[in-house]
Design goal:
Layout: E1 2-3, H1 18-22, E2 27-31, E3 40-46, H2 47-53, E4 60-65, E5 70-74, H3 75-80, E6 84-89, E7 92-93, E8 103-105, H4 117-120, E9 127-132
Parallel strand pairs: 1-9
Antiparallel strand pairs: 2-3, 3-6, 4-5, 4-9, 6-7, 6-8
Length: 133
């Protein structure tokens, strides 16, 4: 993570490994996606928990994927919804071949407004970097 991050460990960035991410509280979410059939069960950690743990402050998070896709996500989304940074789907660890290492997942089935295409663009898979502004 980079940008407005209060806790850093490499220059002005927070570089996180699997052990650091595993220390965050785990959550589970079952929801439909726009790219899979039927409901899927995801596990990971809440985006807001990561931001809180790193004392990140800002209004926007830019999520960057391994394939150079990026999405700007209002921090308000993370405060309002239980947005998950998922590392498993249906008890299987996500790999680069299947949307891993992390996939931003919204609780789509819990809120009608999240079924809007604006939110679908924020479901960044193959997530590797967050920039807080």
């Amino acid at each position: 993570m980079s940008g407005e991050v209060g806790l850093t460990n490499v220059d002005d960035e927070a570089h996180l490994d699997a052990a650091m991410l595993a220390a965050l509280p785990r959550e589970r979410l079952t929801t439909h996606t726009s790219v899979t059939d039927g409901p899927q069960t995801f596990e990971g950690f809440l985006a807001r928990d990561l931001l809180d743990a790193l004392h990140a402050e800002g209004e926007t998070v830019t999520a960057l994927a391994l394939n150079d896709y990026l999405a700007e996500i209002p921090v308000e989304d993370f405060e309002r919804y239980d947005v998950l940074l998922a590392d498993t789907m249906n008890c299987e660890r996500l790999t680069r071949r299947d949307k891993g290492p992390l996939w931003i997942v919204y609780p789509r089935d819990d809120h009608a407004e999240l079924q809007d295409i604006r939110y679908d663009y924020r479901w960044v898979w193959q997530l590797y970097r967050l920039e807080v502004e």
